[in-house]
Specification:
The complex is a heterodimer of chains A (about 140) and B (about 300). By secondary structure, chain A is mostly beta strands. Chain A has a five-stranded antiparallel beta sheet, covered by helices on one side. In chain A, strands 6-7-8 form a three-stranded antiparallel beta sheet, with no helix packed on it. In chain A, strand 4 and strand 5 form a beta hairpin. The longest helix of chain A has 7 residues. The mean pLDDT of chain A is about 90. The mean pLDDT of chain B is about 95. Chain B has two domains: about 130 residues, Aspartate/ornithine carbamoyltransferase (Rossmann fold, 3-Layer(aba) Sandwich), CATH 3.40.50.1370; about 160 residues, Rossmann fold (3-Layer(aba) Sandwich). In chain B, the strands form two sheets. A five-stranded parallel beta sheet of chain B has the order 7-6-5-8-9, covered by helices on one side. Chain B has a four-stranded parallel beta sheet with strand order 2-1-3-4, sandwiched between helices. Chain B is α/β, with parallel strands linked by helices. The chains are: A mainly beta (about 140), B alpha/beta (about 300).
């Protein structure tokens, strides 16, 4: 299957196979006004199978959350048909409203419109704790 | 300082200063009797806690200030469904400083983001209780004359006991601290406290379920109550509540200058026969709670 390469935009590569849609939702790519391609189960020498997302627009997108969801993902920035930048995303210092605190004693369980915020408390172990009750994020 | 939510909000220097002021208040209470004249402390207790609330109120009164507030959620607008954020915004208009207890963990942190006056966390669920920790530190300093070079036994509910977690966090910053952690298997100290505080700070520690085994080494014995409200299951509570009861027999091998602390209220974990032992410091500790809160109120209101 062929998907056209993009001239200007972002290619999110080395996504775990079948996780592409999850990444698409987490980045809210459905809200963009440009073409977005999700390629699932593509062949990969490194991974066997992988997913890829191509965003056909030169936009400033907040990709920090990828560092939490899958730090092995590769970001490629494309300008005038050329890759000008390639990098992995570090785990973000905080995650807002992506995961819910499951502690029934946490204030987030009752306070109106309070955002669920998790803070990176151990970079090496990639440990996140609820900002309010310090409960560990469960895998 | 704007708020006190977690004991970690205070540096060692700030804690030392608070202890110094509190000791000064103990010696010269009349010098402080009008320091907070025309100031108001709001005590917002969304769950009952007689001791902590009265301690805060007595502290403000002894500083010459006034007190307003409520002692349970049912007598506040929370019962009508008001959020913590809204309550705090309103109370900030009526008071100069707020002491707040709430059953939900993190509620005082939420309050601090909305409040125009300083917030003191007076306990949030099983999470933090920094003024209890300050009380414990003042008591240890008062009884032992130091906060370093101590062997501290902690006994009872080390799993849910937030006072234990906070005290360990605070003591971890002082030199040459050794811990003896005494609890039944089900109420052992959580792994994350061990990994992130005790081991990270290279503190020597022993875990045991025998209260007498290391008694002779202890400078401090910190007893705790197995708290019913921290259990979802009544059976577990009933099974574990009488696991350790400290009595004169168990204290036979203890040092002559041991200091026995307990955050109170006690149920039956310290026999009343121990009350007459000069090493029993828990009622003095309750008194220390008032003095350290006086020092804290002065600091937070920036009154010298």
């Amino acid at each position: 299957m062929n998907i056209d390469s993009i001239r200007n935009g972002i290619v999110i590569d080395h996504i775990q196979a079948k996780k592409g849609l999850e990444i698409y939702d987490a980045l809210k790519l459905g809200e963009l006004d440009c073409s977005v391609a999700i390629i699932t189960n593509a062949r990969s020498e490194k991974m066997g199978r992988k997913d890829i997302i191509k965003i056909d627009k030169d936009i400033d997108l907040d990709l920090d959350i990828l560092g939490y969801l899958d730090p092995n993902i590769t970001i490629n920035i494309i300008k005038n048909d050329k890759r000008i930048e390639k990098y992995h995303v570090d785990p973000p210092e905080q995650i807002v409203d992506l995961i819910k605190c499951k502690n029934p004693r946490c204030i987030t369980s009752i306070e109106q419109e309070l955002k669920h915020v998790f803070i990176l408390t151990d970079k090496d172990k990639k440990t996140y704790r609820c900002k309010y009750c310090e409960t560990l994020k469960e895998d | 300082m704007k708020n006190l939510i977690d004991i970690k909000d205070l540096s060692i220097e700030e804690i030392d200063e608070l202890i110094k002021v509190a000791k000064n208040i103990m010696q010269n209470p009349e010098k402080y009797s009008e320091k907070c004249k025309h100031k108001k402390l709001a005590t917002l207790f969304f769950e009952p806690s007689t001791r902590t609330r009265l301690s805060f109120e007595a502290a403000m009164m002894e500083l010459g200030g006034n007190v307003l507030g409520f002692s349970e959620a049912s007598s506040s607008s929370t019962a009508k469904g008001e959020s913590v954020s809204d309550t705090i915004r309103v109370v900030g208009a009526y008071s100069d400083i707020i002491a707040m207890r709430h059953p939900k963990e993190g509620a005082p942190l939420v309050a601090s983001t909305k409040s125009i006056v300083p917030i003191i966390n007076a306990g949030d669920g099983g999470h933090n209780h920094p003024t209890q920790t300050l009380t414990d530190l003042l008591t240890i300093s008062y009884e032992k004359g130091r906060l370093d070079n101590l062997t501290i036994g902690m006994c009872g509910d080390l799993k849910f006991g937030r006072t234990v977690h906070s005290l360990i966090t605070a003591m971890a910053r002082y030199k040459n601290i050794r811990l003896v952690l005494i609890s039944p298997e089900e109420l052992k100290i959580p792994e994350y406290i061990k990994e992130e505080i005790i081991e990270k700070n290279n503190i020597d520690y022993i875990e045991t379920n025998d209260i007498e085994e290391h008694m002779s080494k202890l400078d401090i014995l910190y007893m705790t109550r197995v708290q019913k409200e921290r259990f979802f299951n009544e059976e577990d509570y009933v099974r574990l509540k009488d696991y350790y009861i400290l009595n004169n027999e168990k204290l036979k091998k203890a040092k002559k200058d041991l200091a026995i602390l307990h955050p109170l209220p006690r149920v039956n974990e310290i026999s009343t026969e121990v009350d007459e032992d000069p090493r029993a410091c828990y009622f003095k500790q309750a008194e220390c709670g008032k003095y350290i809160r006086m020092a804290l109120i002065l600091k937070m209101l920036d009154i010298k």
